[in-house]
Fold these 2 entries.
Entry 1:
Amino acid sequence: MKVEHYMRGAEMKAEARIKYPIPVDISGKKVLILDDVTDTGETLHLSVGYVQSLNPAEIRTAVLQHKTRSSFTPDFYAQKIVRWRWIIYPWARYEDLAGFAEKILGNRTLDISRIITEFKDRYGIEVGEKELLEILQDLVERHEVERVETEKLVGWRVKGSK
C-alpha cells in the first residue's frame, strides 16, 4: 500500500490519503506496517485503521525514525528523534531539494551561489553546485522554474514570478 501525506519540499497535504490500497487478501495474516518516519502520526493512524478493516490476525508497526512529537508511537523504531527536524532520506533527496529550491526562489531571481547559501542558511543543507544545477535544469524542463540571463546575472526564478 502507498500512503501520501507530504509533497515536495516538506509541504504537507491537508490530510494523509491511501493512494494504492493493498491488492491481496490479508485476512488472518500477521502484518507489519513499515514507514520511514513518524512525523505527525497521521500516516500510521490511517494505515493501521485501513489494515484493521481487512481483518488481519495481528498488526505491528515499525519506522526508521520516531519523532516524539508524533501522535502515533510505533511498536518498533531504530532511532528516537526528540528535537523536531526535517529528515532527508536518500530515496527522497531529489524531491525534497527540488521543493526547497522552489521555496528559496519564491518570487525572486537568484544565482546559483545565492541558492546554495540559502540552502545552508535556511535548512542547514549542504548542496553542491553540480547537483543543484541538475535539479534546476529538471525544474526548467518541467516548466516550474525558468532560467534568466542578463548582462549581470545568470539566475533562476519560479515560472511566472517577476
Entry 2:
Amino acid sequence: MTMFLCKLFAMNPFSFFLLLLIAVPVVEIYFLIQVGSAIGAFPTVLLIVFTAVLGAFLFRLQGMSTVQRVQASLSRGEIPALEMIEGAMLLFSAALLLTPGFVTDVVGFACLVPMIRRKFALSVLESQFINKQSFQGGGPFNQASPNGSEDDVIEGEFKREDDTPASLEDKEK
C-alpha cells in the first residue's frame, strides 16, 4: 500500500489531481448512500448541513486566532511563515467542510485541530517545498552586505548652505 502511495505522489500533478477529481466524489457518494440507508435521507441531509455550519463557525474562530498571531509576529518584526501556512490550511479546511460529504468533512475537521495543523505546517517549513533562504534574510532584498557588515552606510548630518529660511526671504521682498 505504501508503494502505491509513493507512486501516486510521484506522478505528475495533473494526473494526481485528475485522480482526486474522480475518486473523491465516488467515495463521497458511496458514504452518503451508506449513511442515508442507515439513518434515512432527511437526517443525512441535516447532518451534512450541520457539519457545514459547525465547520464555518470553527473556521471563523480559528481564522481570527491565526490573524491575531500573524499581526503579533509582524509587530515583533518576524516573518509569519508558520501562520501563513496555517492560514492556507484553514482555507483548505473551509472548502472541504463546505463540500457536501463525510470524507471531506473528516479531513476538513482534522485541519481545524490546532496541533495537527501546526505539525503539518512545521513539516512543510522543514521540507524542500519552500526556499529556506527567503526566511533567513539572505534574499535579494536584504540590506546588509553578504559578510554581515554595512560598508555602504555613512552616518552623519548635512546642511545645505544655499538654503535660506523662508521667513528671511519673505522679509527681503
